[in-house]
Design brief:
Strand order of the largest sheet of chain B: 6-7-8-3-9-10
Number of domains of chain B: 2
Order of helices and strands of chain A: HHEHHEEEEEHHEHEEHHEHEHHHHH
Helix content of chain B: 25-40%
CATH topology of the largest domain in chain B: Rossmann fold
Number of strands of chain A: 11
Oligomer: heterodimer
Order of helices and strands of chain B: EEEHEEHEHHHEHEHEEH
Largest sheet of chain A: 6 strands, mixed, barrel
Shape of chain B: globular
Distance between the termini of chain B: 34 Å
Strand content of chain A: 15-25%
Largest interface: A-B, 26 and 28 residues
Helix content of chain A: 40-55%
Number of domains of chain A: 2
Distance between the termini of chain A: 27 Å
Radius of gyration of chain A: 35 Å
Number of strands of chain B: 10
Chain lengths: 473, 254
């Protein structure tokens, strides 16, 4: 039989017992819908997670530290590289060199210090950090009040929510962090803070000369060259305008120490605030060239992290990135998708039993018809393909309806969840994704499952003995 | 009663030949010999009636000749081909192109219109769509049902249904028409109508007709040759002069 005839006969037969075949098709549709719903949820969640993580700047960032910094890394690192004492200092020339490595977008020092901020004449002690302008796209600023820094050098500051609460004298109960950012922002935005800090300044030449004169008596001339490392620490004040209030901590996952007040990076650099490493490297660093405890290196995309890390390691520094974490994350989602897929397929498996049942019933019902067709010349293959076509048509139709249904379910859940998120004052999220390959794959899968389900009934129909079938009333 | 009368000389070569044809069924512990060693020949263009009471094996013989069933032993040769040796696929092709069948219960497909029923064998024969409609129309015209071609079988009388079944049996231009009690479900008037049609086909298209019936009167009126069966065995084979004469008479008239 030719394909158009086959299709026509199959559809006619499906229409004949319309209710039963519709119910079977609905069964397939529900199965496909559950499969599509499950998988698109898995895919959507994965996309949401990676979107979030990429935005967080964790996956395109390499943290560089000196080997001389013995706090963070294990003995393994100490043994494999050059001895910490002989390794390079992480200073400005090193930063520039790293910045010129291929694929590196920027390399900026991590400046952070604990200092005192005065607001309303009350002192508040906290950790202050510096942010490059690229941090603007960080998702921590999604729900921020006010604005990001107007320039890299502006005397401006962004506060973290909890610190803002502290400034206003509100002490949130632990565990019930229900204060809205907007409430805190209203009285604070545009106000001024005074930051008191310790500036590291190159020692005045006359002071240095005087020191030389005094030291020269006891230690001799050898001491003279070292005098260039001398610097002084001066107490300074800087007025800062509050421009923004962020809900989340933009560095919550990055550093071990959590800053609650943020300055523009260039401003922070120009202040020459005393850093802990200044003391550690006091014997090495030139007085006016700062030494960094760590440098954050941003690369073009996550795939370039590994080569950049290797290049930096070759320079003699320690590096750290969260690439390993993404690897296990991807594994997690693969397993999640697999399980969601299996649960989704269960419904389809039940539906396929429905197809077998419907077609076997159809054979009993249409026994006589099959006998007639054989008597007037239908071959086994004609009968078999006819039943196949009926199964396939139910599968394809169920697949199409099911994908539409699954998509609708997804939209509904997405909609409902976003209403919930809105009520919780969280930004809306799109965590439902139905990619085209899932649409095509689900329909093809439903079609194939239906054909497989049709195998047995079709073979049985084809084997039917026409003489017996015609005798059957 | 032996077939001493012979067949009219107008008939051509042997179309159907069976030799020691047997078809045995096992029903529980008992062996049923539905067909038990039948040897007969039917010539091309002959109109033969198979007569016998129910259970005599006449329908079984017809099914064997139709290629719907396979013999337990013996041979059944139609147009030089031994049906017992054909594959299932070849048998279906044989049924499609060589044989047309009509049944007591008409056996039209109830979900299809008359036109679609008549078209169905052409679908299996993969005849072009455009050609099919013309042929179906012609066949329905021959049996006088063009006005009813868009109706479903349930909307028609028994006689009309059997006429549609005849049109379907002819559609692939077979040489052999096999009829299993074609008037069994019809009153005598419509039965006569159908039999006249069958006789016309036998004459005009020179189709070989083998008809199974238990009505001797009907057989004597239309068939040129009567074959009697009982308990699966051939018990008589005789020419039928009256029917042959009638054919001659009608043949002369046309």
């Amino acid at each position: 039989m030719k394909l158009p005839d086959l299709t026509e006969l199959a559809l006619r037969n499906l229409r004949e017992s319309g209710l039963r075949n519709s119910l079977t098709t609905v069964g397939i549709a529900v199965g496909v819908a559950s499969l599509v719903a499950m998988l698109s949820l898995g895919i959507g969640l994965q996309q949401l997670a990676s979107r979030r993580l990429v935005k967080s700047g964790l996956f395109d960032t390499v943290l560089v530290t000196s080997r001389r910094d013995l706090r963070n890394f294990g003995r393994e690192e100490e043994r494999t590289g050059p001895a910490p004492g002989e390794s390079r200092i992480l200073d400005e020339p090193a930063r520039r060199e790293i910045e010129h490595l291929p694929n590196v977008l920027e390399a900026y020092p991590d400046i952070r210090f604990i200092t005192e901020l005065r607001y309303d004449d009350k002192p508040h002690l906290t950790m202050v950090g510096a942010l490059p302008s690229s941090a603007r796209s960080n998702d921590a600023f999604d729900g921020m009040q006010g604005s990001f820094f107007s320039s890299e050098t502006g005397a401006e500051v962004i506060l973290q929510k909890s610190f803002a609460a502290e400034l206003l004298g509100k002490t949130p109960q632990p565990g019930t962090d229900e204060t809205k950012v907007a409430e805190l922002a209203a009285p604070l935005l545009g106000k001024e803070l005074t930051m008191r800090y310790a500036q590291r300044a190159v020692a005045q030449s006359q002071l240095r000369g005087g020191a030389n004169a005094r030291a020269g008596d006891s230690a001799g001339k050898a001491q003279g060259s070292k005098s260039e490392t001398a610097y002084s620490v001066i107490s300074r004040e800087q007025k800062l305008r509050i421009v923004g209030l962020a809900d989340l901590d933009p560095e919550s996952m990055r550093g071990p120490t959590r800053a609650r007040v943020f300055l523009p990076l260039r401003l922070a650099e120009s202040l020459h605030v005393m850093q802990s490493t200044d003391l550690r490297e006091i014997s090495r660093a030139a007085a006016d060239e700062p030494v960094y405890s760590s440098i954050s290196v941003r690369v073009g995309n996550p795939t370039q992290v590994q080569p950049v890390e290797n290049a930096v390691k070759k320079m003699g520094f320690n590096t750290f990135s969260i690439l390993d974490a993404t690897r296990s994350l991807r594994q997690f989602f693969a397993v999640l998708d697999l399980f969601l897929g299996i649960f989704g397929s269960l419904a389809l498996a039940v539906a396929s039993i429905g197809i077998v049942n419907t077609l076997v019933m159809a054979i009993l019902e249409r026994r006589r018809e099959i006998g007639i067709m054989k008597a007037i010349g239908a071959s086994d293959a004609d009968v078999r393909t006819l039943f196949f076509a009926e199964a396939g048509a139910m599968g394809a139709l169920g697949g199409v309806v099911g994908v539409a249904l699954g998509w609708a379910i997804g939209q509904a859940i997405n909609f409902g969840t976003n209403i919930y998120l809105k009520r919780q004052a969280l930004p809306p999220e799109h965590f439902w994704s139905v990619p085209w390959w899932l649409v095509a794959g689900a329909i093809v899968f439903a079609f194939i499952v239906s054909l497989v389900s049709g195998l047995y009934p079709a073979a049985r129909a084809a084997r039917l003995d026409p003489v017996q079938a015609l005798r059957y009333e | 009663m032996s077939g001493s009368q012979g067949t009219p000389p107008t008939h051509g070569a042997c179309t159907i030949r069976t030799q020691d044809l047997c078809r045995h069924y096992r029903l529980g512990d008992t062996l049923i010999r539905a067909v038990d060693g039948i040897s007969l020949e039917v010539r091309s263009g002959e109109f033969v009636a198979l007569l016998g009471s129910s259970g005599s094996g006449k329908s079984s013989v017809l099914n064997l000749v139709a290629g719907l069933d396979r013999p337990t032993s013996g041979v059944v040769i139609v147009q030089g081909r031994n049906l017992a040796q054909l594959s299932r696929e070849e048998l279906s092709k044989y049924r499609l192109h060589t044989v047309g069948m009509v049944f007591q219960s008409f056996n039209l497909i109830s979900s299809m219109t008359l036109e679609e029923n008549v078209e169905l064998p052409m679908r299996f024969a993969e005849v072009e769509r455009g050609k099919r409609q013309n042929l179906a129309h012609d066949a329905l015209q021959r049996v006088g049902l063009v006005a009813r071609m868009k109706h479903r079988p349930s909307e028609l009388s028994g006689g009309e249904q059997q006429r549609a079944a005849l049109a379907r049996a002819l559609i692939n231009r077979p040489q052999l028409l096999l009829a299993d009690e074609p008037t069994g479900n019809l009153d005598s008037h419509t039965g006569t109508e159908i039999m006249n049609l069958v006789r016309d086909l036998n004459r005009q298209l020179e189709m070989t007709v083998v008809m199974v019936t238990h009505e001797r009167a009907l057989a004597e009126r239309y068939a040129e040759r009567l074959i009697f069966l009982a308990d699966g065995k051939l018990i008589g084979d005789q020419g039928n002069r009256s029917a042959a004469g009638e054919i001659k008479f009608q043949g002369e008239r046309s």
